[in-house]
Specification:
- By secondary structure, the protein is α+β, with helices and mostly antiparallel strands.
- It has one domain (about 5-120): Deoxyribonuclease I, Chain A.
- Helix content is about 35%, strand content about 25%.
- It has 3 helices and 6 strands.
- The chain has helices at about 5-15, 35-55, 80-90, and strands at about 20-25, 55-65, 95, 100-105, 110, 115-120.
- The strands form 2 sheets. The chain has a 4-stranded mixed β-sheet with strand order 1-2-6-3, covered by helices on one side.
- The protein is globular and about 50 Å long.
Length: about 130
């Protein structure tokens, strides 16, 4: 699915009608344990503050460099488990259902989903 202005327009119109929070984030691949903990703590704190404001919708997007079979594929790592726990805490649902990163490995293409779009209200008709 390609995202175009036409496919995004219903979402844009809806967002202008209601209180909403839009967060985008990038977690650098290869962070030290200390950097990773600081990143996750900061993201969690930010989502806590947004939750306190009780917006109609929360949209969290980004490249989180995390893998979880719940989202796509057959690999789950610690970062993916931590990210899924964070999504459940806030409660956000990951919406992407196809790979966002494709590389060539020794046995052919490796498809992973590391770029997430998470929403509080997954049933919005977009």
């Amino acid at each position: 699915m390609f995202i175009t202005k036409t496919t995004l327009q219903p979402l844009i119109d809806l967002l202008y009608q209601y209180s909403r929070s839009f967060v985008t984030s990038y977690r650098k691949y290869g962070q030290t344990n200390h950097e990773y903990k600081a990143y996750m703590d900061n993201l969690d704190d930010s989502l806590d503050k947004i939750t306190d404001e009780d917006p109609h919708e929360v949209i969290l997007t980004g490249d989180f460099n995390a893998h979880n079979e719940v989202w796509y594929g057959s690999k789950t790592d610690k970062k993916g488990l931590d990210m899924q726990e964070l999504l459940e805490k806030h409660p956000l649902r990951q919406m992407v259902d196809q790979p966002t990163y494709i590389t060539n490995g020794p046995n052919g293409q490796v498809k992973t989903l590391v770029d997430l779009v998470c929403v509080r209200q997954p049933n919005l008709d977009i």
